[in-house]
Design a protein that fits this description.
Keywords: Amino-acid biosynthesis, Aromatic amino acid biosynthesis, Transferase
Bound molecules: erythose-4-phosphate, phosphoenolpyruvate
CATH class: Alpha Beta
Family: Belongs to the class-I DAHP synthase family.
Distance between the termini: 67 Å
CATH superfamily: Aldolase class I
Pathway: Metabolic intermediate biosynthesis; chorismate biosynthesis; chorismate from D-erythrose 4-phosphate and phosphoenolpyruvate: step 1/7
Oligomer: single chain
Number of domains: 1
Strand order of the largest sheet: 1-2-3-4-5-8-9-10
Number of strands: 10
Catalytic activity: D-erythrose 4-phosphate + phosphoenolpyruvate + H2O = 7-phospho-2-dehydro-3-deoxy-D-arabino-heptonate + phosphate
EC number: 2.5.1.54
Length: 341
């Protein structure tokens, strides 16, 4: 029995689910808008919102249309980006995401996962929303990167040199998360590495292993996601901003209201957000953006639930859409007040 399956190349998945020229132009414009928010050339607030993971593409597209409606409504004050996460980094083990296990049964049909995932990204991009993606496996980056407008290097991979080098090559702003243990200094090391040019092995469009050459990511930034204790409070954000300045980096941060900042309790996300919204309304300009884990319905289910609900997260618990809309309103008002100051 063969112990390997050949995967479609980036060019092959692109040919099956291509991005049209207008969509490519829209993605280029989204990347520039997000970079402008991070540079304070655009006074709006970045809001990265969406499910922990995509397990049902059709239901996630329904959710994306709701987000697109809200994004248009709040466009004067917010730049809303959809979490379109197709790979999940697990602490030990667990469902690794749609690309790695599209049938959710452990079969690991990566070829199908890449095709399904790519088709989802193209449809999600067609809603007009910028897409956010955590690049978990650098080998798969070239299959999806052209559809993505904001990237994360996550808390479990931020210390990895291949991920830092990948970030230096990715053509969109990349958020580096502090580690699971709460280390912000290691994320700052990652930002410094991502800002530099590198030559490193990766997968080219034809699927061959290639020497990729990067010129450094000009829009890499810090994402505070909490650790054993939260780090969204004013003192932690100020300490992170000082550390960024000392490292010669721009002092702007994105704060993740979920993960270590919510203790993985989705009911705490609105409390975290309310605190941040107050500070933004009060004129805090270090806070460039926020992340929220939100989906159609509130909470989560186990991935082996029968029947599996399309509208409920199978990884981290999310806020339901009806609880998300008032939070977007709150953030839009806070951003408007900050701009008016
Ligand atoms: O964001 C999702 C999870 O927090 C991440 O993939 C880790 O999950 P785990 O600790 O349940 O493996
Ligand atoms: C896994 C995630 O975050 P973190 O790396 O902060 O745990 C995520 O955002 O899905």
């Amino acid at each position: 029995m063969l112990d390997q399956d050949l995967l479609p190349t980036p060019a092959e998945v692109d040919a099956q689910a291509p991005l049209s020229p207008p969509l490519r132009a829209a993605i280029a414009a989204h990347r520039e808008t997000i970079a402008a928010v991070l540079d304070r050339r655009d006074p709006r607030l970045l809001v990265i919102v969406g499910p922990c993971s995509v397990h049902d593409p059709a239901a996630t597209l329904d959710y994306a249309h709701l987000v697109a409606g809200a994004a248009a409504r709040f466009a004067d004050d917010l730049v809303v980006v959809l979490r379109a996460y197709l790979e999940k980094p697990r602490t030990v083990a667990g469902w690794p995401g749609l690309v790695r296990d599209p049938t959710l049964d452990g079969k690991g049909d990566l070829a199908a996962g890449l095709r399904t995932g790519r088709a989802f990204l193209v449809e999600a991009a067609a809603t007009g929303l910028p897409l956010a993606y955590e690049f978990v496996d650098p080998v798969l980056a070239s299959h999806v990167a052209d559809a993505i407008s904001w990237a994360a290097i996550g808390a479990r991979t931020v210390t990895s040199p291949p991920h830092r080098q990948l970030a230096s090559w990715l053509p969109m702003p990349v958020g580096m998360k502090n580690t699971v243990g709460g280390r912000v200094d290691l994320a700052i090391d990652a930002l410094r590495a991502a800002g530099l040019p590198h030559v490193f092995p990766g997968i080219g469009r034809d699927g061959r292993v290639a020497a990729l050459r990067s010129s450094g990511n000009p829009s890499a930034h810090l994402v505070l996601r909490g650790g054993p204790v939260p780090n969204y409070d004013a003192a932690s954000v100020a300490a992170a901003a000082n550390a960024l300045t000392e490292a010669g980096l721009p002092s702007r941060v994105v704060v993740d209201c979920s993960h270590g900042n919510s203790g993985k309790d989705h009911n705490r996300q609105p409390l975290v957000l309310a605190d941040l919204a107050d500070r933004i309304a009060g004129g805090d300009r270090v806070l460039a953006g926020l992340m929220l884990e939100s989906y159609l319905s509130d909470g989560k289910q186990y991935p082996d639930a029968h029947p599996l609900r399309p509208d409920l997260s199978i990884t981290d618990a999310c806020l339901g859409w009806s609880r998300t809309v008032p939070l977007l309103e709150q953030l839009a008002l806070a951003a408007k007040r900050r701009t008016a100051r």
